[in-house]
User: Fold this.
Amino acid sequence: MPSNQRENARKEKQLQKERKIRIIIWAVLIIIAVGLAAMRVAEIDFSALKSRLTGSHMGITTEADAYPYTLDTSAGVKLSLVNDKLVALTDSSCRVLNPTDAKEMYSFSSGYANPIMNSAGKYLFTIDQGSTRIRLDTIAENVYENTLKETVICGDVAKNGNVIYACRNSKNKTELIVMNSALKKLVKLPVKDGYIVAVAIDSSGKRYSYAAVNSKDAKLVTTLYTFNLGDNEPKATFEYTDSNVLDLQYTESGELYYVANDTVHLIKSHKKDVEVFAHGSVNTVLFNYTRDGELVYVYSKYADARENEIAYVNSGGKVKTSIKVKQKPKFISATNDICVLFSDKLVTYSLTKGDERGRVACDDSVTSAYKISSKIFITRHQLIDVVETKVEK
Assistant:
């Protein structure tokens, strides 16, 4: 029957199509299986592979023979993370390293007696504190190096390459300079009342602040000034009596931390003072900042106390995480986790929850530690090395 023939032909065609689909599916599965086996043989870490595509927050592997990495110094290494690259600063040079294989991506020799570096975005701003030299680099090339007529005290840099620094002249007066990457001075502000001890510029390069110390009524007074770029008068001023300022730092959202020896304040919108820790209620032990410029702060109730507390203070001035520890930390950093270095171990904690994530034993020769995924990059004497924490269950 013609109709039966057509129906049989249609079924046969459908069966052939299904066989082709099954063959294709099996071929794809075989290819995937072969690929997985090859990756297993090569010991490829999938989290590391994803990291190389999306950034270090997802995972990282390091080549077995890349670490420990030796630097040309006898005075120790200052390590930092800039755009997911390791930046190693010594008294003789600076090196930008790929953390995966420790390959040098950029370097320069400085010979600075007391190098202090700040970073923002791709920029690195280095001053020779107590001397007269400053320089601006990216993680790939030099922008400029300049020799001043005055002694440089402190400095900071914005993501657009604007820098701020304070210097002291022969009359022991201090002056504030804001300068762009083409060496054009945008602000030149002599400070007659007080002595500049700390400066900061926000990530946009459009707002800045400085703290000056003076004596009033036989008491030490620190005055904090906030400015918008282009304004002749400060946006606001704040006075703190008997407070030794340690640092000023802007968050990515533009709020300003004032960290002192016995207090922490947050300046909102350049004009509202929020007291995070009241004056005299804390003894500052250590502090550092997250990638977004938010504060991770270690304090005790009194000097040399064995028990300490770690606080994550967000850009709203709220203590979001609080962790009590029974030892005094010697270094702290915050990337995807809080990494705390003690004299005998490294411990990592969740930034947002405060629970312990992992730990590894170490000795007192370790001086700093930064965590990327499960790897912790440490400094020891003239070495950069890698350790991996054991996850706490």
Observations:
- The two ends are 73 Å apart (CA to CA).
- DSSP finds two helices and 33 strands in the chain.
- The mean pLDDT is 87.
- The helical segments are 2-41, 46-54.
